[in-house]
Each structure stands twice: as structure tokens, then as C-alpha cells.
């Protein structure tokens, strides 16, 4: 054994204690660390020849890289709808690395069964029916990829074309209808060979991002019975608007289509009694995307993908050419259900935080974040120089500069440079804007007041 490896192994308890203490210091300093930092580009240094052992590597990391990292796990990081990591999720993530299980096969451990249990808990959390089965993937983009891959196979089933065997060229042109699709939908269609041009946007309701269901019905009628994919939104990025899922699902009585719902963070509305109606009909979807490193507050990367048609999912992702992985069968291992043959055990942090805090603990986070978003909306509406671009429907505040929206970029830079908060720029209905997205379990009213105070000081 290499002497540095031998030494680190001999001192591992001591070194892990030092790492734990370092992690505790980082967590304790989240409130003082800048919420975001203007990046200073660092060029790569040459690969070490001899190495320095774990202690030396940790010292180099602490000096060279850690000071430039943002407090993205902190309470005033309000960009990208990013959660933090609950204490239980963080512990679960550490143990994930310690145990280092590959959960794609039942051949050597019970790891796939833990994932199955965590998936069933999440299904209950979102109120999905038992026929929806879930698998863990790395994020919302991959969840959308997986769901739309199953949708592609469904289209092939309608045409009598086994797309997974013959390729997408045998399918012919595909129509994907959506009101306000997330950018990851285009990426997924590109990856799946369907092409970004397959998306046909359907007009939203006036002043909304939610699709006009009557216009959607017209678009389906124009297809003349040709099957399609409909991508509905349960929470749009800019204003957290929700399509009428039940009304859309009802259109399947007259038109053939696969209903994929992008509920990356909007699915968590099910945990708020005052907002649960927004996801009414989610269980009618054929596939559902939910991102877990958002409102579940588990570390990156973690998401889940649900579908009613696990048989089609296995047809797409089957790895049957490798005899050592076993047959697909009626109850396939995860290796036959996701794009990866090997991957991290994503489910452990989710399992830990659900076991530790239960439905009610996570519901409290959701309700509190919604209330905080509403509070910030009230503060911004009262500030001279700003105007809300949409009502605060759930956990995102979308606003702009009242007199000079074109200067939003300057405001974003000033906010970032202050270190007090991080908000992301966007464009809503052609107007440059900002988004403040609440999904962190640590955020409090005091944080909202600090952000509102900062915006007041930076107002033109």
C-alpha cells in the first residue's frame, strides 16, 4: 500500500474528526459567508506528483478553494430554487459516501430496497396513487429526460414501432405541446433525438404562465388523432404558475397524448393545505418530475421520476445485454430503469430527512417558506422603485425596477457584490426581472427583512 494511503488509513478516525470539526465551522459561519460571490477565475495548477495526504489536501482546499464558495446552503441564497441540507439529510449524505453503495442491482445489497421505500414515502408525500412508481435520478433535468423517454416509447407503442430497438428515426415527427416549458424540456428533447423544434408552444392564459386549456384542446384537435406528448407545469420558474392538471387530463377522453408533469418544486404545494389545490390532478399524469435538492432540502444531486408505465421504462433503459446484471423481469432492478448503469445511492439523504422529520416537519418548511415569500412580496410592493410582475402564488417573488427595468442586470450585480443575498435575473413577459425563490429550511423573517432592507438601499 502506498505510504500516504497507509498513513491516512491508520489515522482515519482522527482525520475524520478534523473534517467534522471543519464542516461544523463552515455550517456555523453560513450566516457570515457571502450568499454569493463574483467569481474570480483560477487556472488549474499541475497535478501533484507525490501528493500530501488527506490532511495536506484539506489544508490546500481550505486555502485555495473554500473561501470562494457561496453560502448556497444558507438562508438568503434565493436563486435557482435551491434548498439547503437538513441536519438529517447531511448525515445521510456523509453515510452515503462512507458506505459507497451502487444501488442499481439487488445482487449484493439491500440498497435498491431502501430506494424503493424512500420512493414510496415520496409518493405518499405528494399524494400520488400506488400505480405511480418512482426511481431516483440526479436532478430535475434527468427526471424530465427519463419521463420523456418513456413518453417517446409510448408514442412508439401507439404506432407499433419499438423505438428503443429501431431508433427515433422510425417514429417520424413528434409533437410536444406545452404552455411555458422549462428550459430542461428542450434539452431533454434534444438528448432523446426528438429535437427542440418538436415543442409547440400553446398560448397561456392572459397575464399568466399557465396554459390556456381551450387553446391546448384546439392544438390537439389540429393533430387529427395523431398521438402527442403534453408537458404540463406544476409550478413555472418565474411566477410558480400551475396548469389546470385535471382539466388537461380530461382532454385524454377525446385526444391521445402522454401527460408529463414537470413538478420540479411545485409538487411540494401538496404539503400546504392552502395550496394543495394547485396540484389537484397530479396523480392523473403518466409521468412526473420532482426535484429533491430543492424543497426537500437534501444535498445535490437528487431527484425522483414517477411513471405509471414501468414496463415501458424498462423497455427504454433495459441493460439486458450484460448477463451479470440479470434479466429485466417483472420487477426490474434500477439498472434497467434509469440512464446510469452505476450511480450514487441518491435515496439515503432523502430517506434520512423523511425518517427524521416526517411529513409534518417538511410541511412546516413548505408553509414557512410560502409565508416568507408572501412577506417579501409585501415589502417589495411597498418599496419605491420596484414593482411586482406577478402575484406571489407560492414561493417565488418576481419583480423588476419600476422605472428602468433595463438596469436589472446592474441591480443583480450589486446584490451579489453585497454578499447579503443572491437573486437570479430572468425575463418575464419581455420585461427584465429578478426572482427571489424560497426553499431553504433555515430562512426566517429576519432574513426577509435583511433582503428587503438591501433592496431598499439599492433602489434607484
UniProtKB/TrEMBL annotation:
Domain of life, per lineage: Bacteria
Cofactor: pyridoxal 5'-phosphate
A GO BP entry: carboxylic acid metabolic process
Alphabetized Pfam families for the sequence: Pyridoxal_deC
Keyword Nucleus belongs to the record: no
GO terms assigned for molecular function: aromatic-L-amino-acid decarboxylase activity; pyridoxal phosphate binding; transaminase activity
Positions of post-translational N6-(pyridoxal phosphate)lysine modification: 294
Keywords, sorted A to Z: Aminotransferase, Decarboxylase, Lyase, Pyridoxal phosphate, Transferase
InterPro entries, per database record: Aromatic_deC (IPR010977), PyrdxlP-dep_de-COase (IPR002129), PyrdxlP-dep_Trfase (IPR015424), PyrdxlP-dep_Trfase_major (IPR015421), PyrdxlP-dep_Trfase_small (IPR015422)
Family to which this protein belongs: Belongs to the group II decarboxylase family.
Entry protein name: Aspartate aminotransferase family protein
Amino acid at each position: 500500500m502506498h505510504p500516504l494511503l497507509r498513513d491516512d488509513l491508520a489515522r482515519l478516525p482522527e482525520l475524520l474528526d478534523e473534517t467534522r470539526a471543519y464542516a461544523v465551522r463552515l455550517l456555523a459561519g453560513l450566516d457570515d459567508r457571502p450568499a454569493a460571490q463574483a467569481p474570480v477565475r483560477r487556472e488549474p495548477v499541475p497535478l501533484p506528483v507525490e501528493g500530501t495526504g488527506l490532511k495536506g489536501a484539506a489544508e490546500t482546499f481550505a486555502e485555495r478553494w473554500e473561501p470562494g464558495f457561496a453560502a448556497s446552503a444558507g438562508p438568503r441564497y434565493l436563486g435557482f430554487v435551491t434548498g439547503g441540507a437538513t441536519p438529517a439529510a447531511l448525515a445521510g449524505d456523509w453515510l452515503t459516501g462512507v458506505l459507497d453503495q451502487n444501488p442499481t442491482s439487488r445482487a449484493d445489497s439491500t440498497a435498491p430496497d431502501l430506494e424503493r421505500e424512500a420512493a414510496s414515502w415520496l409518493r405518499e408525500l405528494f399524494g400520488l396513487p400506488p400505480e405511480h412508481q418512482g426511481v431516483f435520478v440526479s436532478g430535475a433535468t434527468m427526471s424530465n429526460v427519463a419521463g420523456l423517454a418513456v413518453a417517446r416509447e409510448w408514442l412508439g407503442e401507439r404506432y407499433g414501432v419499438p423505438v428503443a430497438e429501431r431508433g427515433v428515426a422510425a417514429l417520424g415527427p413528434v409533437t410536444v405541446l406545452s404552455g411555458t416549458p422549462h428550459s430542461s424540456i428542450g434539452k431533454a428533447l434534444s438528448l432523446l433525438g426528438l429535437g427542440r423544434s418538436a415543442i409547440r408552444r400553446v398560448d397561456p392564459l392572459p397575464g399568466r404562465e399557465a396554459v390556456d386549456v381551450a387553446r391546448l384542446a384546439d392544438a390537439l384537435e389540429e393533430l387529427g388523432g395523431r398521438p402527442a406528448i403534453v408537458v404540463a407545469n406544476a409550478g413555472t420558474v418565474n411566477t410558480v404558475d400551475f396548469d389546470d392538471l385535471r382539466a388537461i387530463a380530461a382532454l385524454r377522453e377525446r385526444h391521445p397524448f402522454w401527460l408529463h408533469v414537470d413538478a420540479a418544486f411545485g409538487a411540494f404545494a401538496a404539503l400546504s393545505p392552502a395550496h394543495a389545490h394547485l396540484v389537484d390532478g397530479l396523480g392523473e399524469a403518466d409521468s412526473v418530475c420532482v426535484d429533491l435538492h430543492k424543497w426537500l432540502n437534501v444535498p445535490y444531486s437528487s431527484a425522483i421520476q414517477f411513471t405509471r408505465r414501468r414496463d415501458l421504462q424498462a423497455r427504454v433503459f433495459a441493460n439486458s445485454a450484460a448477463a451479470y446484471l440479470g434479466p429485466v423481469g417483472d420487477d426490474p432492478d434500477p439498472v434497467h430503469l434509469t440512464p446510469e448503469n452505476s450511480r450514487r445511492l441518491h435515496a439515503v439523504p432523502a430517506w434520512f430527512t423523511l425518517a427524521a422529520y416526517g411529513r409534518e416537519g417538511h410541511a412546516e418548511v413548505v408553509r414557512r417558506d410560502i409565508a416568507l415569500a408572501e412577506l417579501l412580496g409585501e415589502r417589495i410592493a411597498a418599496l419605491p422603485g420596484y414593482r411586482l410582475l406577478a402575484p406571489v402564488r407560492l414561493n417565488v417573488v418576481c419583480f423588476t425596477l419600476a422605472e428602468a427595468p433595463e438596469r436589472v442586470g446592474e441591480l443583480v450585480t450589486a446584490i451579489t457584490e453585497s454578499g447579503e443575498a443572491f437573486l437570479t435575473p430572468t425575463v418575464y413577459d419581455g420585461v427584465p426581472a429578478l426572482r427571489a425563490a424560497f426553499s431553504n429550511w433555515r430562512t426566517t423573517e429576519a432574513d426577509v427583512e435583511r433582503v428587503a432592507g438591501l433592496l431598499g438601499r439599492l433602489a434607484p
